[in-house]
Design brief:
The protein is globular and about 65 Å long. The protein contains twelve helices and 13 strands. The longest helix is centred in the first third of the chain and has 23 residues. The protein is an alpha/beta fold. Helix 7 links the parallel strand 7 and strand 8. The protein has a nine-stranded mixed β-sheet with strand order 3-4-2-5-1-6-7-8-13, with helices on both faces. Helix 4 packs across helix 10 and helix 9 crosses helix 11.
């Protein structure tokens, strides 16, 4: 199961629990340093663009993976997404079939990615890269979903996503804080950073990173992919089982939705029949529109019983990533430059 985020991870100052857990965080950080130092990564014959994050929990990584795949395709490349398939039972290497596969098999993120690009699930990233190289699909670039801290596959470009509101929380390493490894270690792994800023946030996190990080720092935010007038037709019952559900609820409020009730579940949570039935009953009793995220809705796909009924009655809010100013063009140029450098290398 995914680790549930404690609220004190994002307190301004580490509280008593964080201080008590700090020795474990230092041990975790020491192990991460040694693992990275000892790594002998596999060098794929294809360029590898990795998109990851420094912290546990949601930062908006999946929209950026989808954006990069679309950007590459528009430039004539043939991208394939390589993902761990978190929450799914398949270890892979396995090519995802978005029509017939279940989230319980390949994970919710894999299904979302497979709707936009060829997607391969593999717990072992080196084996996954080899499987992509072998085909049967013609591929020119591997887009690695997550894996910034995974040393098994050599990357040509590493893009880190940072939440523009939460930043690095209390700045401590798991389990004392949200960092997956010491920040200095992770910053050294990244080539550029995209700060995903929720509505209403300022540029403080981005400006702070520009003072401490030597590479480019780009700003972006998630926006709806389609008209959202339907959100204002009637009151809303919203639920989410993602890394940062507060961002989703804030987005709904910002779009003018009359959110009467919110229900939060753990990241990648597969609703139990009684949970789905409870959501249906509450919405029916009050004539509320059921609204959730694309990840949550895709987890309901091909399920029977109350979950299947919920999938028919609920509506997802489709989102995409939009960059500030000319940062979208800068991202395209940086990716093109990394691909050119890789292909020009002997």
């Amino acid at each position: 199961m995914p680790l549930e985020e404690p609220a004190w991870w994002y307190a301004r100052e580490p509280n008593r629990v964080a201080r008590l857990l700090s020795p474990l965080g230092r041990l975790w950080g020491h192990v991460a340093r040694r693992r990275l130092a000892r790594a002998r990564p596999y060098r794929s014959r294809l360029p590898v663009v990795c998109i990851g994050n420094f912290t546990a929990g949601g930062t908006g990584k999946t929209p950026l993976v989808l954006h990069v795949c679309a950007l590459l395709a528009a430039r004539g490349e043939a991208p394939a997404a390589l993902t761990r398939g978190y929450g799914g039972s398949f270890k892979g290497p396995y090519w995802v079939d978005p029509v017939h596969d279940h989230a319980a098999q390949v994970g919710d993120e894999a299904l979302l990615l497979a709707a936009a690009a060829r997607t391969l699930v593999s717990r072992n990233r080196a084996l996954g890269a080899r499987a992509i190289e072998a085909g049967p699909h013609a591929t020119s670039v591997i887009v690695m979903d997550d894996g910034l801290q995974n040393p098994s596959l050599e990357k040509d470009l590493v893009i880190a996503v940072v939440d523009g509101a939460r930043g690095f929380g209390n700045g401590r390493v798991l389990p004392a804080g949200p960092l997956r490894a010491p920040l200095d270690v992770q910053l050294a792994l990244a080539d550029l950073i995209v700060v995903n800023e929720p509505p209403g946030s300022d540029a403080g996190v981005a400006e702070g990173l520009r003072r401490s990080f030597t590479g480019p720092v780009l700003r972006a935010g998630t926006v709806p992919r389609e008209d959202t007038a339907w959100l204002r037709d009637r009151p809303v019952l919203a639920w989410a089982g993602i890394g940062n559900p507060a961002r989703f609820f804030a987005t709904l409020h910002g779009l003018g939705a009359d959110v009467r009730a919110q229900r939060t579940f753990r990241d990648h949570h597969e609703l139990r029949p009684e949970e789905a039935a409870a959501l249906l009953a509450l919405a029916e009793a009050n004539d509320w529109q059921l609204v959730t995220t694309e990840k949550d809705l895709v987890r309901l796909g091909r399920r029977d019983g109350a979950a299947g009924v919920l999938a028919m009655h609920a509506r997802a809010l489709p989102i995409r990533l939009a960059f500030a100013g000319n940062d979208g063009e800068r991202l395209g140029e940086l990716i093109a430059s990394s691909l050119h450098a890789r292909r020009a290398a002997p």
